[in-house]
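Hello forum,

I keep getting stuck at the same step: I have a sequence, I want structure tokens, and every attempt I make locally crashes halfway through. Rather than fight my setup again tonight, could one of you with a working pipeline run this one for me? It's a single chain of 152 residues.
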Amino acid sequence: MAKAFSLKLRARAAPHRNGRHELAWLHGSVSILLLEDFVGAAFGAVFFTVTSEIWEIAKHLGSVNIFIIFLISIIMGFSLVYLSRRRKAVSIKLEHAASLRAIEIYIISFLTSLMFVLVFNTAQATDLILKQTFVITLPAVVSAATADLLFF
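Reply #2:
Ran it on my machine without issues. Output:
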């Protein structure tokens, strides 16, 4: 009981990580977490970008499929971030912070996936570039959220 209470006090007393706010980009400053998100997303995206199966899958996907992949990516990112925060600290604002981190992780993962698709030149048409990016973003989000779990 005393240990759980001290965790609650620590969670409220220490909203910062290593002297920096977790969502520092909201205040206009860059956080080391953005770099960690990029490294995690790159690790998840690079292997799928050069896979011809992903190119074929993306070619045949419709708008509904892409939207469902987007939803799955957001839900998985939120779930991983939320569950990693919940095991370390108890906080009233946990859902809000986890939602913002999930959006941050998704945006970084999407941009990283887009960068790899453009660098490796795996598609020529704009719609195919976007489809491949959405498909590759799913494993990139999982990888970036896992990196967040390890480094947080």
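The radius of gyration is 17 Å. If your local run keeps crashing, start a new thread with the error log.
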